[in-house]
Design brief:
about 280 residues; alpha/beta; UDP-N-acetylmuramoyl-L-alanine:D-glutamate ligase; 9-stranded mixed β-sheet; 9 strands; about 20% strand; globular
């Protein structure tokens, strides 16, 4: 990885929840940002009591405090790209959409976090429509996994064709690029790969890597979206950012240490200490 001088280091911001176990959320985002050579700032939307076994408590942050965090970062650090993660209520989704409009964010990556890897629900059902109507129309990229794509599109996905139909419906909401992640299904096309789809409104790009049989997968979605955000901030095309982010997550999962008794965290620093 090339060394970046401080004057050349882009600033990016994550707006997401905190994971006390350090595997997902704000913590995963900041580690991914650092690994990609960008400066990560943050606005915390919720605090979770969480480890590799699950989520035991959630406390949303007051809207005024979320707003103040965003304002503090944007007015001083001027992030060139913003990534969203856990936005658990309609009011928080609406607040972030309002801030995106107020500050005219040119690069907004929306990871529509709904369920933790342990199965805990992280999004209130009534917030899904707010995503559709208020936030996704402002997004540059959205990165739903298969269950999230089903929720956003209303299409049950079990084949590549259905995943493409879901991507089209989500794109129709106004987002520029839709990436449907295939990691929840070993393969959509019997290739044995974990296959992701990128849709730009006209064409699909498919990119797969060999399926990894591992429980060290906590924070894969957060890390993928934050990696795309960092790469776009550094000037990569959406196609290169898509493929590079998937390769980064795949290697971070492949080299992940065995931490905890459940779904373990990734190795975000695999380039520096890969096994």
């Amino acid at each position: 990885m090339a060394v970046i001088s401080p004057t050349d280091m882009p600033v990016v911001m994550t707006i997401a929840g905190s994971d006390s176990g350090g595997g997902a959320g704000i913590q995963a985002d900041l580690k991914a940002f650092a690994a990609h050579g960008v400066h990560g700032a943050s606005s915390v939307t919720a605090i979770t009591a969480q480890n590799t076994l699950g989520v035991t408590a959630v406390q949303e942050i007051d809207l005024e405090v979320i707003s103040a965090q965003i304002d503090a970062v944007v007015t001083d650090l001027e992030p060139v790209a913003v990534k969203t993660g856990m936005l658990s209520s309609p009011d928080i989704v609406r607040l972030v959409a309002d801030k995106a409009g107020q500050y005219e964010w040119r690069t907004l990556v929306v990871d529509p976090v709904m369920v933790a890897s342990s199965g805990a629900r992280l999004l209130k059902d009534e917030a899904i429509e707010t995503y559709r109507s208020e936030l996704l129309p402002l997004a540059t990229v959205t990165t739903p996994n298969l269950p999230e794509a089903t929720e956003l599109s209303g299409i049950e996905i079990s084949t590549t064709s259905e995943a493409k139909d879901a991507a089209r419906k989500i794109h129709d909401l106004g987002v520029d690029f839709v990436i449907v992640k295939g990691g929840h299904m070993e393969s959509l096309d019997e290739s044995g790969d974990s296959m992701d789809l990128l849709f730009d409104g006209s064409y699909f790009t498919e990119f797969g890597l060999p399926w990894l049989d591992s429980t060290n997968n906590h924070g894969t979605g957060c890390t993928f979206a934050s990696s795309i955000t960092a790469r776009l901030a550094k000037g990569e095309s959406i196609g290169d950012a898509f493929k590079g982010a998937k390769e980064f997550v795949w290697n971070a999962m492949r080299t992940a240490p065995d931490i905890g008794q459940g779904n373990g965290p990734l190795n975000h620093m695999w380039q520096f200490n890969a096994k």
